[in-house]
Design goal:
Blueprint lengths: L11 H13 L4 E5 L5 H16 L2 E6 L2 H18 L6 E3 L3 H4 L7 H4 L3 H17 L6 H8 L1 H14 L3 H10 L4 H8 L5 E5 L1 H4 L1 H11 L6 E5 L5 H8 L2 E4 H14 L4 H4 L1 E2 H20 L15 E3 L4 H10 L3 H24 L7 H12 L7 E8 L4 E8 L8 H4 L2 E6 L5 H7 L8 E4 L8 E5 L7 H6 L2 H16 L4 E5 L2 H6 L13 E3 L6 H14 L6 E5 L3 H5 L9 E5 L8 H14 L2 H19 L9 E6 L14 E2 L3 H10 L1 H6 L14 H13 L1
Parallel strand pairs: 1-11, 1-12, 2-4, 2-5, 3-4, 5-11, 13-18, 13-19, 14-16, 14-17, 15-16, 17-18
Antiparallel strand pairs: 6-10, 8-9, 9-10
This protein binds iron/sulfur cluster (SF4).
């Protein structure tokens, strides 16, 4: 409790007690506690106390950089509260964010983590061996010890966010990545992206810098509901047509070696795999027999037999599996040569042939119990690919058995047993679900039975789409409040787009674009947030996306959330494979892989509304299947007149007690011309 810097809210003491108990008993702890309930500060207070008393270190892992900032802010508050100088925390990010040299070189700016690591090693080598080449930020780090000391002292004292730290390093012309490494040995708390823990190679480096054994680490997983999917992606691999085309371009540029003791030219090998991928796509996705033309566009992926790619390669190239192994090794070796050559010429150390070799090595050796192999028809048929998809996230979760203890938390983690089982955590792991500490009457959830995004229903009754759109526009146009509309996917969002716009939307509209960079997205969100204090605006986004899962909208920044449809996973071979795997392993295929992920996305999107005890907000689920989620949203009620029901909630006397804006808490009146017209329309209808 000494480290807890605020007045206690309901359940917070219990959260800290349970965490402490788990740390003492050296076992994991999994808990769900609603968004805005203060789980980060509770976890920090309990873990810091225990770590100091027992000489442990804390590694706190987050999915996004924005979540990392939140942890740093809470640590600062705890330090201000306790004045304890031992509370040193470091936010670590990859070179992609921290390498100052890469940001001055457009060639290197978009490199992968591995390429950046090679690039950096070479630059450091040049710095050591030459006087005027290499990395100036690294050179200064070697030469200007006083400047480095000054920066280290400042960082330990201020606990900056990664962005603030990077700016301070840039001002001092010192490499942020290297300075970070110097800070780590003194840090009690290190905050890292998931990849630092779940990629084994990077984790070994991190623990090396920390100079600790796994046993002395308390591992915290924040926003843990993301972890199973994250691990599945991390341990999956794919070979795309674009990548093979890049291999051929590389061969044209650097030469066409004959692989496996002169048996197969690299170009022939690459063309052969290209043909195999196209043939697999035609056979399994398009279901075409020789000479047939494709008629159905619905299916985009399909299972392929485990050894089909290898069998086809052996038969088309008339080689043995021994020769295929030799080809794989030669591709890796030749790729490494290309990487070195490019590096020496000041280029990015990238080789597609190297990647191809590594991928084939993985493809031919994976355990098929935990994987499925697929052919996927991506980019409207332009970039078909083969994919080894990891079904079992516990493939990458062995670290939990090695650390002192692990704390797993999220605002939406139910069913907790699914998370525990998916990650292979012990069945005895304590689980806890804490109700929201905020007044229940501050949030209202309605659903409408006259619409759905269910594919079969949309096909049967096309008027469903226009009813959906009517609901969306009437809600957005009627209430002068910030309103977020969350679609199940970008595809669904664009079905409502006509002639470059969204017809009938009278309110100022912000639209998240799928390819938007982080900077552009933050600008969009800031402008939307600012609209909350004036006439309000509408924001179109998606469930499961960067906005619905990672951003805070307190007070008037968001007062209405419209959920368009139920975000069930897209039916695909990959999804079927996953469901079947969970059915066989746990007997809960649908519950764990369809229902629970959809519930989490729904709850995350709705969770944007209430971030503290004074927030009020209303969510509307536009789908007749909403009652299936009653167990997660017990207060949800059906509405047959959404505008009236929303209006009643907004104008309820209770709302005045809890209003965030006493001056604006009086009767909510539609204020825009479109809103007036909607109001008249409703009155006429009545
Ligand atoms: Fe980039 Fe730092 Fe490496 Fe220089 S030393 S190349 S700035 S990561």
């Amino acid at each position: 409790m000494d480290f807890f810097p605020y007045t206690l809210r309901p359940y917070q003491r219990d959260i800290m007690d349970r965490i402490t108990q788990s740390l003492q008993q050296r076992q994991p702890f999994i808990f769900e506690s609603g968004t805005g309930s203060g789980k980060t500060v509770c976890t920090l207070a309990a873990c810091l106390t225990y770590a100091l008393a027992n000489k442990k270190r804390i590694v706190y892992t987050t999915r996004t950089n924005a979540q990392q900032q939140q942890v740093i802010r809470e640590l600062r508050t705890i330090r201000d509260h306790t004045k304890d100088a031992r509370l040193i925390g470091v936010g670590l990010q990859g070179r992609a964010n921290l390498c100052l040299l890469a940001h001055t070189d457009p060639e290197v700016e978009h490199a992968t983590a591995e390429e950046l690591s090679r690039f950096c090693s070479y630059q450091k080598k040049l710095t050591h061996t030459t006087k005027d080449k290499g990395c100036p930020y690294y050179r200064r780090l070697q030469e200007q010890t006083t400047a480095v000391e000054k920066l280290l002292t400042w960082t330990k004292h201020h606990i900056p966010t990664a962005e603030e730290f990077r700016t301070a390093c840039a001002d001092a012309t010192l490499c942020p990545y290297e300075v970070n490494k110097l800070l780590i040995p003194d840090a009690l708390l290190v905050i890292v992206p998931y990849v630092y823990i779940f990629d084994k190679t990077i984790r070994i480096k991190l623990f090396d810098w920390l100079s600790v054994a796994e046993d002395d680490v308390i591992l915290v997983v924040d926003e843990a509901h993301n972890l199973p999917d994250y691990l599945r992606e991390l341990y999956s691999a794919q070979l795309t047509t674009y990548m093979l085309t890049s291999c051929l371009a590389e061969i044209e540029r650097y030469g066409d070696p004959t692989l496996a003791d002169g048996r197969v030219p690299a170009s022939r090998f690459c063309r052969c795999i290209l043909d195999i991928i196209t043939d697999l796509r035609d056979t399994y996705v398009y279901n075409l027999m020789e000479g047939e033309v494709r008629t159905s566009l619905e299916k985009t992926d399909a299972f392929i037999p485990s050894y089909e790619v290898e069998t086809e390669l052996l038969s088309r190239l008339t080689i043995t599996s021994h020769t295929l192994n030799a080809i794989t090794h030669d591709l890796i070796a030749y790729g490494e040569k290309i990487q070195e050559y490019r590096q020496k010429s000041g280029k990015l150390p990238r080789s597609y042939l190297h990647k191809l070799g590594l991928l084939l090595q993985f493809w031919t050796t994976i355990e098929m119990d935990q994987y499925i192999k697929l052919v996927v028809d991506a980019a409207q048929g332009k970039n078909p690919r083969i994919e080894a998809y990891c079904l079992d996230p516990s493939v990458g979760s062995e670290i939990f058995a090695e650390v002192h203890s692990s704390i797993h938390m999220s605002g939406t983690l139910e069913p907790l047993t699914e998370y525990r089982d998916s990650l292979g955590l012990p069945p005895t792991t304590p689980l806890a679900n804490y109700p929201s500490p905020f007044p229940k009457e501050n949030r209202k959830i309605f659903y409408s039975r006259d619409v759905t995004t269910r594919y079969e229903d949309l096909a049967r009754d096309p008027s469903t789409l226009s009813r959906l759109w009517d609901h969306i526009t009437s809600i957005c146009n009627t209430f002068p409040k910030n309103t977020a509309v969350f679609f199940p996917s970008f595809n669904t969002m664009t079905t409502f787009r006509k002639n470059g716009g969204y017809p009938g939307m009278a309110r100022h509209l912000y639209v998240e674009d799928q390819d938007m960079g982080q900077g552009a997205l933050m600008n969009l969100v800031s402008s939307f947030r600012a609209s909350g204090s004036s006439q309000g605006a509408a924001l179109f986004s998606v469930m499961g996306g960067r906005i619905s899962e990672g951003m805070d909208f307190p007070a008037e920044q968001l007062e209405i959330a419209v959920i368009v449809g139920i975000p069930y996973p897209k039916p695909s071979a990959r999804q079927r494979g996953l469901q079947q795997y969970y059915e066989v392993k746990f007997g809960k295929g649908f519950e764990y892989t369809v229902h629970a992920p959809a519930a989490r996305k729904l709850l995350q999107a709705i969770g944007r509304l209430i971030r503290n005890e004074n927030d009020r907000g209303v969510a509307v689920i536009l789908d007749k299947r909403a009652p299936r989620f009653h167990q997660f949203l017990p207060e949800m009620v059906e509405s047959t007149n959404l505008l009236d029901d929303i209006s009643d909630f907004m104008n309820a006397p209770h709302g005045q007690e809890h209003s965030k804006h006493p001056a604006r808490s009086q009767k909510t009146k539609p204020t825009t011309p479109a809103a007036e017209s909607m109001k008249k329309k409703r009155e006429r209808t009545r």
